[in-house]
């Protein structure tokens, strides 16, 4: 933890529609990772502060749940307009606090806006079902209701899109919300709160408490919190899922990944290289859908690798606000050092380092250049662990069956991609690969807001994924009314 300094802004919490100075005694530095410069300080708020925010949200729930759904949706429409109007500013904040380039940041803002657009459809999405006659004069109707206060815990790598997977829909269907953003990228969330307030959201419906473990535990333990949406790493997700479930809440935890792409001999080579490259090294590999292993059929492996390495060697690395930059920094020095450690381990474990990203990046920020290993095997750490950095492993295989069997050895199963021109291979891949989100001849198969988003195996804990109709299911509960309307007598 850093000493409190006065030159940079100390971020405030947002509780009951007010910007509140935290009572925290600890503050953490927030960096522009491309410059290693401190740009703000985030409070590591206390359990008492999150408890207070939850109580405020519980009180706000009593009136918010009674607001007609179309009126709630209108506020979402206003919010959407304000996000559109301010999208360039939002993207700049993301680039500065996260490091991804401005084009990627704008893409992220667009994805977040799509979630708000989807949530604005709440009147239709909340409709229940009914049957007019299930016995003489008896009918049955299923109504949806919000669940109460929802807690959101989010990672550093998508400061806008991931919170937008959660709070717009949760709030549109009548819940109130307490968000704990990542302490490494906390700035964007505060801007979202300002814009949501400007859109007409009543006080107490959306709250932000900055911090770390204590705030997370506060959300997990408080009996007024009825649902937890978590996105982050596997160990933390497992902890959140277990502790939240023990406290009898519904929990969805989207966790870590090690995404495999398979390139077959009959793939369009240019397309495969372009997409794998963007997917492996875009956002400095800090994407839960980043490609981190490519399993290549032997017949195309040399040509594929040559082109990939050639491309990697010409990439421009630097500050994401520079329009020519493709690759920004990783988020912190610790992540940079951890990545360099993995590269060293890869060499020691016998993989062939064909593109070394250790020394080709600017010194000023937390950079690691694109790194590619060939001849990787499944017993190596670089194959097994989520590195979450621009490090790509190549595995050579005889055929698709071997590729799928290899990929399925991973405990993670978030996304997987296949490059081929063979329909039978596509079907085989779809039926046999372990992953929740598949891409065919494209790089980052992150589903749109109106489709479910989650992995399988250790990449997801829970029953209902984020987004799509599943998010409506997660953020609502049902009441089924069976009613006997005795037929009137007309005698
Ligand atoms: P992280 O797990 O370190 O942090 C996520 C959140 O949990 C943060 O808000 C953090 O403050 C909190 N947290 C961290 N340690 C905690 C602890 N010990 N107890 C309680 N709370 C704790 O994740 P990150 O480094 O911010 O994000 C990167 C990870 O997120 C990667 O593993 C990536 O794959 C994953 N991710 C997954 C998805 C998905 O959809 N599956 C999407 C984005 C990111």
Explain this structure to me?
With 491 residues, this protein is α/β, with parallel strands linked by helices. The protein folds into two domains: 9-255 and 451-479, 3-Layer(aba) Sandwich (Aldehyde Dehydrogenase, Chain A, domain 1); 259-440, Aldehyde Dehydrogenase, Chain A, domain 2 (3-Layer(aba) Sandwich). The protein has 16 helices and 23 strands. The strands form six sheets. A seven-stranded mixed beta sheet has the order 15-16-17-14-13-19-20, with helices on both faces. Strands 10-9-8-11-12-22 form a six-stranded mixed beta sheet, sandwiched between helices. A three-stranded mixed beta sheet has the order 1-5-4, covered by helices on one side. Strand 2 and strand 3 (18-20) form a beta hairpin. Helix 2 crosses helix 7. Mean pLDDT is 97; it is low at 1-5. It binds nicotinamide-adenine-dinucleotide (NAD). The site of nicotinamide-adenine-dinucleotide has 28 residues, from helix 8 and helix 9.
């Amino acid at each position: 933890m850093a000493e409190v300094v006065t030159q940079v802004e100390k971020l405030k919490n947002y509780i009951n529609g007010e910007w509140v100075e935290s009572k925290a005694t600890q503050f953490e530095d927030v960096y522009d990772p491309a410059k290693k410069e401190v740009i703000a300080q985030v409070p590591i708020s206390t359990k008492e502060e999150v408890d207070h925010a939850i109580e405020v949200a519980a009180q706000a729930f009593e009136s918010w749940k009674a607001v007609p759904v179309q009126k709630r949706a209108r506020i979402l429409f206003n919010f959407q307009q304000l996000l559109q109007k301010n999208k360039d500013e939002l993207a700049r904040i993301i680039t500065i606090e996260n490091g991804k380039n401005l084009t990627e940041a704008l893409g992220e803002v667009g994805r977040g806006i799509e979630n708000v657009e989807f949530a604005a459809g709440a009147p239709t999405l909340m409709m229940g079902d009914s049957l007019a006659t299930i016995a003489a004069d008896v009918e049955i109707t299923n109504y949806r209701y919000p669940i109460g206060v929802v807690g959101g815990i989010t990672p550093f790598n998508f400061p806008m899109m991931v919170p937008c997977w959660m709070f717009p829909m949760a709030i549109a269907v009548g819940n109130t919300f307490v968000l704990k953003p990542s302490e490494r990228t906390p700035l964007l969330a505060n801007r979202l709160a300002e814009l949501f307030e400007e859109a007409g959201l009543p006080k107490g419906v959306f709250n932000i408490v900055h911090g770390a473990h204590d705030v997370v535990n506060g959300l997990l333990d408080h009996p007024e919190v009825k649902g937890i949406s978590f996105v982050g790493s596997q160990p933390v997700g497992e902890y959140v899922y277990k502790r939240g479930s023990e406290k009898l809440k519904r929990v969805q935890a989207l966790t870590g990944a090690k995404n495999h792409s398979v390139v077959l001999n009959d793939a369009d080579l240019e397309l495969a290289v372009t997409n794998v490259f963007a997917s492996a090294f875009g956002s400095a590999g800090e994407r839960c859908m980043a490609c981190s292993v490519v399993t290549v059929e032997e017949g195309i492996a040399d040509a594929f690798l040559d082109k990939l390495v050639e491309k990697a060697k010409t990439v421009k690395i630097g500050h994401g606000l520079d329009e020519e930059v493709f690759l920004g920094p990783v988020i912190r020095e610790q992540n940079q050092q951890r990545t360099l450690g993995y590269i060293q381990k890869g060499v020691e474990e016998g993989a062939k380092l064909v593109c070394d990203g250790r020394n080709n990046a600017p010194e000023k920020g937390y950079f690691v250049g694109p790194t590619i290993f060939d001849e990787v095997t499944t017993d190596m750490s670089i194959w097994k662990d989520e590195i979450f950095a621009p490090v790509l492993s190549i595995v050579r295989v005889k055929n698709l069956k071997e590729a799928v069997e290899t990929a399925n050895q991973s405990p993670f199963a978030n996304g997987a991609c296949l490059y081929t021109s063979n329909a039978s291979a596509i079907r085989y891949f779809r039926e046999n690969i372990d992953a929740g989100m598949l891409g065919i001849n494209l790089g980052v198969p992150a589903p749109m807001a109106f489709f479910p988003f989650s992995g399988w195996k250790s990449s997801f804990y829970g029953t209902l994924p984020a987004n799509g109709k599943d998010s409506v299911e997660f953020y609502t509960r049902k009441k089924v009314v069976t009613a006997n309307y005795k037929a009137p007598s007309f005698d």
